[in-house]
Amino acid sequence: MKVTEKSLRARCTEINMGLLKNTTFGIRFERLSAGYKVELQYRDATPPQVLIQDATASEAAAAIEGAVLGAVAVKSAGTGTPEYVTRETFVRQVGERCPKCQTKDLNLGHLSVVKGEIVQHCSCIRCGLVWKSIYRLDDYDCSSAAVVLEP
Ligand SMILES: [Zn+2]
Fold this sequence. Notes:
It is built from 3 helices and 6 strands. By secondary structure, the chain is of the alpha+beta class. A hairpin with a 2-residue loop joins strand 1 and strand 2. Residues 98, 100-101, 103, 124, 126-127, 129 line the site of zinc ion.
């Protein structure tokens, strides 16, 4: 398939919206008089990193694919701890810790009961995360009923 400026643009858009969506950078290219320039553009103030310049369209395409492979490898290898704990971990900790920073300094809000579920609005004092803790109806127990209703 012949690489054109149009196909490069389409590919960059596809990558930036897809594989690189949650990374810290995107890919962009430019067509200059000397040829194509491909660079990584960071979502913060980091200056862009030029991957290739004065390149032909197919060289530019190869540079783009190379950068994607690198990014996917980093992503699948993981960069340390994930940002939020899993549902299993949250339940094992009986909802006593922030799902993000794991502190016990929480603001526990009011409870609202909806069809067998209790939702509690919570927020973290340390990192500011806001979430809902969800409790599900489990059982009933009459054995300790102390209240006797008079007819
Ligand atoms: Zn937190």
